[in-house]
Amino acid sequence: MAEPAWWQRGIIYQIYPRSFGDLDGDGIGDLAGIAARLDHLVRLGVDALWLSPIYPSPMADFGYDVADYEGIDPIFGTLADFDALVAAAHARGLRVLLDFVPNHSSDRHPWFLESRTSRSAPRRRWYVWRDPAPGGGPPNNWLSHFGGGAWAWDQATGQYYLHSFLKEQPDLNWRNPEVRRAMYGALRFWLARGVDGFRVDVLWLLMKDALFRDNPPNPAWKPGDREHDRLLPLHDADQPETLDLVMEMRAVLDEYPDRVLIGEIYLPVERLVAYYGRDLKGAHLPFNFQLIGAAWNAANIARLVAEYEAALPAGAWPNWVLGNHDQHRIATRIGAAQARVAAMLLLTLRGTPTIYYGEELGLTDVPIPPEAVWDPAERNEPGLGLGRDPERTPMPWDGTPGAGFTTGTPWLPVGADRDVLNVAAEERDPASMLHLYRALTGLRRGSEALTLGALEGLRAEGEVLRYVRRGAGERLAVLLNLGHAPQSVAEVAGEVLLSTHGDRPGEAVPGTLPLRPAEGVVMRLAA
Ligand code: TEU
């Protein structure tokens, strides 16, 4: 077997740049603020940081509306700040991944400004323009992910343009080779600057049906549903041609050594795994979001781990995610106690883990009063619970009013629990989530079984989820109590390495292991 790549052994950490560290005091995080906190990441034991978008942007969708694919927004700093951040990260052995947003640009991008000037503009075909339907109105029934229809009328040129998200985010036309060339040029711009890879935004949405057919209704949809769309996304997502694009992108990354291609893909497992590409020449890591929104019980988690493992193509490397900037925080979804069990699950499963900033502190969603809402997903459809501000609040570094995040007024409120849940306080408390995360990453980093080993014996026994990681002469058992009652696990003899409760290292286990409610244990099994 080839030497494993860094991203196979490694742990990824997602930073939402507006909310990590604000050095210039404007209340919004910046690159210098991230650079100042790199030692936190080193001590946490992660290998790479992924930055949500930092490109010039009108911020209609907080950077997911890019106005220049080869620059840095002044709110975050300059290209020089970026180079300094990459250098500082690399000096500490940390890789840097960028968010690449290819499906749509900002409506202020010079390409779109030119595209909308006339039907014969040279860049007209860089975006998706269509005539009205024969009877008038939008060309088809496709919906925006942010509410309402996906087509915006342009009075000046008498056509509609497609926007899968906000109308300020017109979809680029990936069927146009000029678009592809320009976008691959942007990838190379950053790769040549030393960027170690990309998380590609909405990778499964890049291609649309060439005939622009209507989508059928989705029977599973309910109001306020983050899981389903109102229509089945049959014709505006996951088209057969998308795979060719993914493989083209991968080929661009392969021009440089050791780069990683990660895809944001919300699809059922059987479709998700197609994005590894033919002969694994697609995404290295199609993000696996199965743990997001999953019912938190042992039988269900055992089933979804087994189904994912079984669906992986030969040689494909797995990955696991608990949360991100679009999802309610894990501690809000399953509670503080089970969030510790989830941390142990994330860092002991087979495959690359991605940690969302603040998970290592046990942060919860922060309620945002209606007048303080920023996220367009909430503003467009208030009251449906679609807003993502609650999971994007500033990282609490200490218990001061600005939380050590800013000397100004933070753009979103810091959680009311910042007195307890902050880096400095958790540093002092050996029972904190921060110490648990460090212990878990430390255990993982030091163990071939946990990083690269096989996953065996996966099963649910009542509320206990159990599995074994085996590698290089070592067998580790992971025993997770996903319930609220004490449990006893049989057929385990060996020694406790780590408990989510922090108190049992070195404990000899004769054959039966008692587990307290919401306790997880990693044990070394006797040979
Ligand atoms: O998210 C894509 C996506 O699936 C979202 O529409 C998700 O369903 C929604 O946020 C749930 O409320 C990516 C980015 O991660 C997100 O932040 C962007 O807003 C979106 O693409 C558009 O670029």
UniProtKB/TrEMBL annotation:
GO biological process: oligosaccharide catabolic process
Highest taxon of the lineage: Bacteria
Keyword Hydrolase included in the entry's annotation: yes
GO molecular function: alpha-amylase activity
Annotated ranges, domain Glycosyl hydrolase family 13 catalytic: 14-392
Keywords: Glycosidase, Hydrolase
InterPro entries: DUF3459 (IPR022567), GH (IPR017853), GH13_cat_dom (IPR006047), O16G_dom_2 (IPR045857)
Span of the signal peptide: none
Keyword Hydrolase attached: yes
Protein family: Belongs to the glycosyl hydrolase 13 family.
Name of the featured protein: Alpha-amylase family glycosyl hydrolase
Source organism of this protein record: Roseomonas acroporae
Native organism taxonomy: Bacteria, Pseudomonadati, Pseudomonadota, Alphaproteobacteria, Acetobacterales
